[in-house]
Amino acid sequence: MATQWTGGCLCGYCRYEFAGDPPHSGYCHCDMCKKATGSPFAVLVQARVEDLLWTTGSPAVYRSSPIATRGFCGNCGTPLYLQYDGDELIRVTAGSLDHPERIRPAGHYGVESRLDWADCGCGLPEEETQERF
């Protein structure tokens, strides 16, 4: 039986679910993903468009290039997905998953735009946050 995946935005307006064992995921370092997420890279998780169900709300959509659109929460701005025109796959942002710790990225894309310092800072000082929600 396929694993159920759920996720959504920060404010809870947009929620989704899909099934898959386990979905393919990867890091994208392209300039468009950097701008869309406000981060040095995006981690994207593939799902079949036909399997993804918006259970609460629906995302706002922005045409980010001649070949793709991006979905985000119109209330809180959380980036939710990347969708290439005519593709049977949709790529949800790993950070929008309820359990992103279950994802294991399989590769890097857009490496020509990778920032040389975007290595997650291994070896830097660490501290925990008090935020738990």
From TrEMBL:
It comes from the Bacteria. The keyword Lyase applies. One of its GO terms (molecular function) is metal ion binding. Residues 5-112 form the CENP-V/GFA domain. Keywords: Lyase, Metal-binding, Zinc. Signal peptide: none annotated. Pfam families: GFA. Coiled coil: none annotated. Belongs to the Gfa family. This is Putative glutathione-dependent formaldehyde-activating protein. It comes from Rhizobium etli (strain CIAT 652).
